[in-house]
Structure formats: C-alpha cells, structure tokens
C-alpha cells in the first residue's frame, strides 16, 4: 500500500447521496491496494511519483485565466485545483438542458445523477475509485429527450498549485438528444488531477465529445472518459494528449444497446521526458454495433507513449464491426513506444481488425515529395505531421479544428526530428 | 450452418492408445533427492547435478505464471513422477534389433517407423519415450558429415564442453517457472551440433511420446549451428488418452552462430482431453533461439493438441542482419485452451522478423495469440511484420490477440495487423454448390486459411499437418 | 541540356532499359512512343532517381551535371520535373504546404529569396486558375480524393509553379477526356518558351496533336529503335507498332 493511497483512504468522507458507490470504491481501494510492479494495467507507466505523495486538497477556489478556444462560443465550466468556480446556478443555458452541481439537495436531480455516477465507469480503474471516494466537486449535465444543443459545453480543469484535485462530470443525454461536450485539462505545476467523466447516451442520441488532456511538466493527470451507448446512439470523440511527468487516460466505450456507433480519434504528441498513457476499452455487449478507433502519436526526445487498445466482443454481440488502428512515430533514440492493441472475441459472425505500426513512412509519398525538390528532412516532417493532421481534419467542429492545427503544429516543430 | 460445423468438429484422437511396456517409474514427488537420482540414473557429471540443483532452488522461490489467457486447476507438482523409462532401456540397446518390439510397434502405430530402411529417406529420427531417448537413427551417416545428433543425456557425457558452453545460454535456468522446473528435472531430449560450413545432409527429427500414467515429460533440446551451417529440425509429439492431466514442460534452445540457419518445425498433437475438458496434456514449453550476425532462425509450428498450451517460440536477434521468423497454426476445439505466440527481440542492426499466426477456434475452446516485438536502441533499420488472423467456427469459442510492441529506435519499423473472420455461409455455399460436402468444404477453407504457414513446413510435414488438420476437423462439420 | 548515353537500367534485377541514347537541346519537345512494356515509364523513374531503379551502365547529364550522382531532390532542384502517370495521394499534407516548400527549395537553389505566404498564394492561385482547378484544391491533401483528371491537372500546376528546365510527362494523357486533355496541353504549351525542354512519353499519338513534338522516338525493348519528326507519330497511329515485328503486335493485343 502506498503512503498516498493510505492518506486518500483516510480522507474519504462518505455521507452524501452517492454513498453506495463511494463506499464500494473505498472498500475496493482497501482490499486491492496499490498495484504491484508487474500489474498489467500499469506495466509501462510507473506510479512512483504518486506513491509517496502527500494528500493536499483545496477547500477554497480562486480565479485563474482560462485558455481560450476562439470562435467556439462555449459555455465554460471551470474547476481550479479541483474546486468548481463557475456559478452554475446563474448560467444562461439553452432550452432543453440543465447544468447543476453534484452537491444538490434536489431529490430528482440526485436520482438522475445516481443513475449514472459510478454506473458507466467500470470499477477496475484505480484512480477512478479514488475519484469515486473523494470527489466533492462535480457537474451534472442533463440534456432532455429530443433537445439539439448546438452550444458546446466546455469543462476545464486548471491545476495552478501543488494540490490534489478530484473532479467529476456526469452527463445524461435523453432519447434523440444531441450535445457537444469538451473536456480540457491544463497546468504544469506539481499537481495531481483525477478528472473522470461519465456519459449515458440514450437511444438515438448523439454526442460530439472532445477531451484535451493538455497537462504538461510536473502535473500528474489520471483521468478517464466513459461512455454507455444505448440503441442506435452515436458517439464521435476526439482526444488529444500531451505528456507530462505522468499522464494517464482511461477510456471505456460500452455498447449497451444495438446498432450503436462509436468513432474515436486520439492524437498524442510527446516531447522531453513526458509520458502519456492511453488505455481504451471498447465493450461490444450487444449485436450490430460499430466502432472505429484511430490513435496516432509522435514521440520525441526522452518521452514515452503507452497505448493499450482493447476490443472485447461478447458472446451476444454478433454482427459487430470493430476496427482499431494505432500509428506511432518515434523521433528519437531515447524515446520509447509501447503499444498493445488487443482483441478478445467470443462471437463468430463479426468483423474485427486491429493494426499497429511504428515508424512506417510511405516510401512512394516520400519519393513524390523528393521529386518536387523538397529536402528529405522537411519531407519527413511533412509526412510525419501529415498523419496527425489527417485526424485534425476529421474533427467535426470547425472552431476546434482551427484552434488545434496551429497549436499541434507548433508543438510538433519543437520536437526533435532526425 | 454453424451447428453443422460444430457437429463435424467432434473427432477422435488417433494417437490416444496406451502401450503395455514394462517401465521403471519413480514414485511421484519432487525434492532434491529425486533430482540426485535422475542425475545418477543418467550417469551425469557433477557439474550437471549442481546445475540442476541450482535450478531447483530457484524454482522453489518462483511463482507459476498466471498472466496467460488460460484457466486450469493448479498442478500438484508432488503428484507427478519425474522419471519413467521402459525397463528394456536399462541396458541401452545397441541396435534397433535389441529394442523392445512393443516400443517399435508404438512408433509404427504413430506412423513413425524407426527401421531406417522403412523410413522416408532423408529424415533422421530421435525417439523419446517418456523420460528417455529410445533410438536415434542414421547416426553413422550424420557422423560422416561431422553432425552430432544424439540424446542429450549422451551428449552431456560425450561432449561436455559443447553442452556446458551452450546449455542455459539461451534460456537461463531462472528464465521462467517452467524453464526452471525443466532445468532441474529434465530427463532426455535431443542434442544437435552442426559443424562450421556444414549443411546437414538430412532433416533431423525427434518424436516425443508420453506413455506412462502420472508422469511428466521434461525434455530438453539443444541445437547448435556453427558458423555458416544449416539444419532443418522437426519435432512431433503424442500421448495416450487419459482422464488425468499430464504435464509437459520442455525447453528448446537454439544457437545460430554467424551466417548459420536453423529451421525448427513442430507438429504438436498431444492428447487434448475429451469433449468435456477431462484429461489432456498441459503443454508449458519454453523455446528460444539466439541468432548471431547474418544468422536466421525460423520457427514453424502446427499446434492441434494439448488441453492447455503455453508456448512462445522466440528469437533473440543479437547479431546484425539476423533474421527471425515465426509461422504458426494453432487449432483449438472442445475445451482446449491455447495461449501461444512469439517474442522477437531485435538487438542488432538491420535485423528482420516476420510473424504469421493463424488461430482457428472451434467448440468451446479459447485460442490466444500473445506476442512481443521489441526494437532495441541499437537496432537501426530493424523491421518487423506481423500478421495474426483468427478464424472462429461456432459461437461458443473465443479468439484473442495480445500483441506487445515496444520500440526504442527511430529507424526501426514495426507493422502489426490482426483480423478475425469466420467460415462464411457464402463460402460454404459456393463449395457445396460445386459438389463438396460440408466437411470437405470447411477443411478446404481452413487449409486455405493456413496455407501461408503450411508452405513453410518441410514437405513430409506439410502433408502430415494438412492431414492432422483434416482429422481434427473431421466430423466437425456436418 | 539533357544527354543520355548508352543507358542500361534494371528493376528487381530485370533489365528494362538496354542501351538508350538521347540528346535533348533547349526548347525542344521530344515525344517517346512505344508499346506497353517497352520501358517508357521506367525511363522517367530512372532519370528522377527513384529507389530500386538501378543504373548498371551509361551516362546521363543535365545542363552539364552528372545526373546519376545526385539524390532525387537534387535532381529536381537541377530542373528535372517528372509529371507522374499515377500521382500518389498524401493525406494530411496540403497541396499548399507542399508546393510552398518545393517552390522555395527551387528558389533557394537559384539563389533567390523565399516567397512570402502572400506572394506564394498569389502565384498558386494563378496556376490553379490556369489549369482550371478550384482554389480549395490548395487546401486539400495532396491528390487526396482527386479524380484521375484532377490529379493530372495538379501535376501540370506543379510544373507551372516550379519552372523546371526539363519536363518529363509520363502518359499525361491517359484516362483524360478531350476537354481535360486540352487543359493539360494548354498548360504545357504555355510553358514552352524556347528554353524549356520536354520529353512527352505517350502510348498514343492523340496527345501529340495538342503538344506538337519536334522529334518522335520509338522505344522498344529498352532502346530507341526509330527516330523521326512528327510524321512518325502519325505512321504509328495508322499502322500501330507492327513494323517492330510480330511479338510487339501480340503484346499490344
């Protein structure tokens, strides 16, 4: 058991309406303890920087500058060091949706929250359990059936001090509802953020989702986004990961209904001694679902990228189509890429495929660029960044596309290219 | 249609008979005295005994691995007998005429005639029966070429320098739980040495047979191909049909020195247990080769037997320009569980590896590919290509793929692809419309699926493997 | 300008070019015709320096420089331009970014300052217009999702922007309808300035009605077997490659 986890357990206060989930998480934390060194889930991502950490949780919020995304025109919900500083009660929200704090006395809201809180996120995630037990600040977003909310909702986690932050987002999309939700995390101080979000997407609903895990430097982020897809619902998710001393994102997409469709693109660009670890699990529990996942990353300098992409087709999930593709480029001899796409299949009438590559350059494309006089080193940069750019082009929201491309391009040019 | 396929998948295990041969078998149990007795029975030098004891002591400290995608009751290592040999072997026969005729009949029944004149020309066989090697054929012809091919127990005495230098050099005593156990208690196996610049004049082959009840088989094979040499080695295995599980924990070490080539082919057909998962062999095997500069190691395996398989024939590509290959067909049915694959460790520059894995799952079985491709910081220009295809027959089985890829070199290229498919109704319809019955159709489709691997097998083995697959699928398809 | 002497080249150890000689002077347009498999496309790849195309014998010089000594991109900067028969798609790399990089590489070679973004855009727009490609092509990935005709026009647009001294057009007519062919030919003809030279590789005489050659060569089995003026192309048009012998006729069929 780690010193940090012991303190976390001591810190837990379990008395509100979410007690059953919190209690279960706490019990699991106590019985299962800290992962052993060879634990498969943390095999390539050492937790040494958390192990002996002190537990310091902010009680008071303060203002901090929120990074802008031009032309997004979103409703911003901001946590600073784990404290929700946005006055959600006073927000002007579009008709058909409501935004409330998880600290609510309203019993209907409590009931709605409880139907999602800890019900979408699997219990196996260590820091998810920590979040279950400790999170005191969180947001509940409810989109009514049939509502088409075109105003994006952005949730920002800012880490400004050497503190632990545990924030939670709970989203419920009613039948045929549509919403755009952006999760963003920023900060470079020696902080620890567990930001977990759970999405329950009802029949025929559509979620456009973004997660920008942009913590850097000494910040530690251990978060996750978890989705439950009901009949014919659709998810289009784009994730961007920067690396930091320790960055880990767990994503679960659970096809709980038939004919659901999930699309997920992930980009990671890592430099210096950064680490970014993306674990995604796609659970096809019901027939006729489709999933397409593309994860692409570039690793420079002494950075390490860890990717684990699992597709699990259950016995009943006949006629599933699932594809996962992971492409990586390593720019430096001191960097490391660990990738593991996994298939676990128990139904026979399915089409599943995964692929993973490291450092594959299309020789024909390179030749073409060279015949036009482009210097070899520039051509490599172009082609390398090209495969990231492809995923940016795929982003459905124009404002986000226009914001992402230059910042990723900027980050890339600072990475070491052979 | 898939029901029909499943019915057709119920087949018999043809090698499941037991031979009445008088044997000398140790009482079950394992401690240092058992290891001393094994060593004594084999008339081993002191250093070998010491080596075994060190392995045993490490093993006691180790834990049985549990990460594989297999599930089986814990093995009681004290309930196994660690040595069993036909009585007639006590004074080792000097020629085939002195070999117990029942034993020869056993091998004949398995389709492996040991009489040289009856054999396929060009294949030398070492036959290992429970814990001992019973006969090695064509030895003289091989000796003329300078090739050493003999039981490892004999090599320890006759070529101690070679054995001492290479044993444990590829799979260290403490490599893993089963390798440590094997190092402590191995009883026999084959030893091969191909001298510099020599192309082994014939295929070498070992047949392993577990016969006695409650015994484990712990063979150890060591193949050393000296600079610029070439050898092709085949391995086959069978066991009687029994209700108990029997343990097979072998170690195979290959050393390919500069410019040498080793081709190692396996057709594994241990008893898989019955339809309900009763009985069968636990096949926990460690196979690894080390390839020096410009050397090449090629593993080809056709795995159709065993209740549980845990096996990852691997290549350490140490020398620049060395090449590693892994071609595998694994068929599971009934309650069989297989977790098999390979490790390609790229250390040298411009090293290349190819992995082609074909998994076929039927019945209630689970079939997993597990692999590791590792590109070290020095492996400039290294390349790997991996293709893993799974075929599911029926909706009660599982097919899994767990590839680990690690790269630490910017100029190394790794490509991994995995797909899964089924024998489609359309394919079956087409075959049947052309006049084939379902069984033949499925076997044809499955054979087509495995073609890339079969073509890597030596001719005689390819035919055998095709037949084995056909038998395995027999009755499996209605 | 370009001088090819006794060129022998192979692909995957198969000899394709077997002793080819050709002299191209400034401002000349040479057409190379020949049956399938004669080595027409190979010639373009060998001259541009593609990997896997091995020169076993012979000399090639461009503007006095030994071409065979140079890397692919160095040859391009010496003024050699190859318009591909099947241009590759490069998703994620925009035409604009790509062309700006190459135009500036050419300028650097000529000792000129790189173009500013605005100057480049102006030039690129003009070139786009000239080959009748919509402006948003500049933003799209290189050849990504382009039709066959669009790809060919894109090649010509690149040629206009890069201002090479020698252009090799590899079957730039294949798969084009008459209108598209006219656009491509107009683009090429606009670049004929008395100094720039062209090698037009084609299977059919059709393209040569639009781009009038000064010389026509027949390439067969890796060698130039017959040379003449434009009338030779018409001869081929009328009677096919029959004069080369029976085996070629069969290859044609």
Automatic annotation (TrEMBL), chain A:
One annotated GO biological process: iron-sulfur cluster assembly
| Ranges of residues in domain SUF system FeS cluster assembly SufBD core | 161-387
Under the heading InterPro entries, the entry gives: Fe-S_cluster_assembly_SufBD, SUF_FeS_clus_asmbl_SufBD_core, SUF_FeS_clus_asmbl_SufBD_sf, SUF_FeS_clus_asmbl_SufD, SufBD_N
User: Which residue stretches, if any, does this entry annotate as coiled coil?
Assistant: none
List the Pfam families hit by this protein, alphabetically. Answer: SUFBD_core, SufBD_N
Can you give the residue ranges of the SUF system FeS cluster assembly SufBD N-terminal domain? 13-155
Question: Family, per the entry?
Answer: Belongs to the iron-sulfur cluster assembly SufBD family.
Q: What PANTHER family does the record point to? A: PROTEIN ABCI7, CHLOROPLASTIC
Q: What is this protein called?
A: Fe-S cluster assembly protein SufD
Automatic annotation (TrEMBL), chain B:
Q: Which Pfam families match?
A: SUFBD_core, SufBD_N
> What Gene Ontology terms for biological process does this UniProt record contain?
iron-sulfur cluster assembly
- Write down the InterPro entries for this protein, in alphabetical order: Fe-S_cluster_assembly_SufBD, SUF_FeS_clus_asmbl_SufB, SUF_FeS_clus_asmbl_SufBD_core, SUF_FeS_clus_asmbl_SufBD_sf, SufBD_N
* Superkingdom of origin organism: Bacteria
List residues of the SUF system FeS cluster assembly SufBD core domain. 208-449
Query: Where does the SUF system FeS cluster assembly SufBD N-terminal domain lie?
Result: 144-199
Spell out the family assignment given in the record's similarity comment.
Belongs to the iron-sulfur cluster assembly SufBD family.
The name of this protein is: Fe-S cluster assembly protein SufB
**Origin organism lineage:** Bacteria, Pseudomonadati, Pseudomonadota, Gammaproteobacteria, Alteromonadales
Automatic annotation (TrEMBL), chain C:
User: What highest taxon heads this organism's lineage?
Assistant: Bacteria
Q: Which residues form the ABC transporter domain?
A: 2-246
PROSITE patterns documented for this protein: ABC_TRANSPORTER_2
> What's an example of a GO molecular-function annotation for this chain?
ATP hydrolysis activity
Q: Which InterPro entries match?
A: AAA+_ATPase, ABC_transporter-like_ATP-bd, FeS-cluster_ATPase_SufC, P-loop_NTPase
Name the SMART domains on file: AAA
Per UniProt, which keywords does this protein have?
ATP-binding, Nucleotide-binding
Could you tell me which CDD domains the record lists for this protein?
Answer: ABC_FeS_Assembly
Query: Which family is annotated?
Result: Belongs to the ABC transporter superfamily. Ycf16 family.
What is this protein called in UniProt?
Answer: Fe-S cluster assembly ATPase SufC
Q: Which organism is it from?
A: Alteromonas profundi
In the UniProt record, what gene is named as encoding this protein?
A: sufC
